[in-house]
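Hello Y.,

Per our agreement to keep a running log of every chain we model this quarter, I'm adding this entry. I've kept the format consistent with earlier entries: sequence first, then predicted structure.
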Amino acid sequence: MHIFTDIAESRAFAKNMSESLSDVSYWANWYVLTLTVKPPLDWIKQAKVTTLLRAQLPEGDGSILWLDGALLLVCQDAAALNREELSASIQKTIGAETVQIDVLSVASETDKVKALLVQVQGDPKTVRKPPAASYQFLKSLVPNIEELLRGWHIGHQDWSGRTKPHIMIVDDDPMTLRLVSRALARDYEVITAENGAEAIAKHLQLMPDIIFLDIGLPDCDGLTLLTYMQQYDQECRIVMFSADDFVKTRVRAFAGGAKGFLAKPFNLRAFQNQIAEWFKGK
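Predicted structure for the entry above:
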């Protein structure tokens, strides 16, 4: 299953598919499904709905296109998709008011499919509105964020459990990374990152269970990073730490969704206590 998260890629796919419809024999048993949600999907909700779609569809050929506020799915065996169950799952997962799923047979409703694909391609002279600020931020830090997000959807869905927690330590101080990772390496799988860009990439590639995240990073604010990480992964336990132990800093961390806060300098017991809280929540 191919996932096109970039609008330019989605439009190119629609253009290529439209041109291939001159021979509909190739498209026998293929369907186009449009999924429209109210309120419209932002990129975070598109990611969540994509995960739901992949869970219901059998592995095989097909494509999911991210559009402006909606999704388009091109696949075989549309009967395998339980539309009522999918609609209920979407409403529950993202709090949608309404969910509309329309299905077209490529072979028997070719004209309607062509009209839809023209609509997807849009007017090439029209400048698309920029994505949400959060997506702009992630892409500025990690240019290949779209590829990493696609991989995360697949890997996270197929992940079946681990014998011990995977822990990521994010700090621009090499000494802190070395000392903490050494102390935890015997009992846990430890991942380290020295900045926000590296943290996002490793989060999506290695899917840690717990992240200890420094507030002061060289390329971004740790509290900002906390917000974006939680937008696509709400299962990971994120604990902030900082040399700034003012009450205001702690309040901002917990208000941003952190599950804990450690003040520098810290000791191994503080880390172990946070890990024990993760075990309690399993």
